[in-house]
Specification:
121 residues; three-stranded antiparallel β-sheet; two-stranded antiparallel ribbon; 7 strands; 12% helix; 29% strand
Length: 121
């Protein structure tokens, strides 16, 4: 398990408005509203709303399994579900606009409340 300072220096991919990788940034420079691309087996040390996911065959899926060992020390994979099944289409997702109202982060890793209001899907 790597420390926060080391992981925060790692790079991640920020997408532009049409889903292309716009630039690579350090995790510590991510801002609310950035759209990120995270690939299989990559670390993501931040709270994120899952909007779209694909399996190894590039087919959309509704659930992914994430390793939260760097957050809670547990080694079992935890299921995470996309925000809404209507968003699990890449082209629709890139045309979507919306607003996310959310709870501030807490120590409870299993519960997070938010309301996503979106259009363009």
């Amino acid at each position: 398990m790597r420390g926060d300072a080391a992981v925060n220096k790692d790079k991640c991919h920020i997408l532009d408005q049409i889903g292309r990788i716009n630039k690579s940034m350090k995790w510590s420079d991510i801002k609310m509203g950035d759209i990120l691309e995270v690939k299989k087996d990559e670390v993501f040390p931040t709270d994120m709303l899952l909007l779209y996911a694909e399996n190894d065959k590039n087919e959309p899926v509704d659930i992914i399994f994430v390793d939260t060992m760097n957050l809670d020390g547990e080694t079992n994979l935890k299921p995470r579900t996309i925000a809404h099944s209507a968003l699990n289409d890449w082209e629709k997702l890139m045309k979507m606009s919306g607003v996310l109202e959310y709870d501030w982060p807490s120590e409870n890793l299993d519960k997070w409340d938010g309301v996503l209001t979106y259009a363009g899907v």
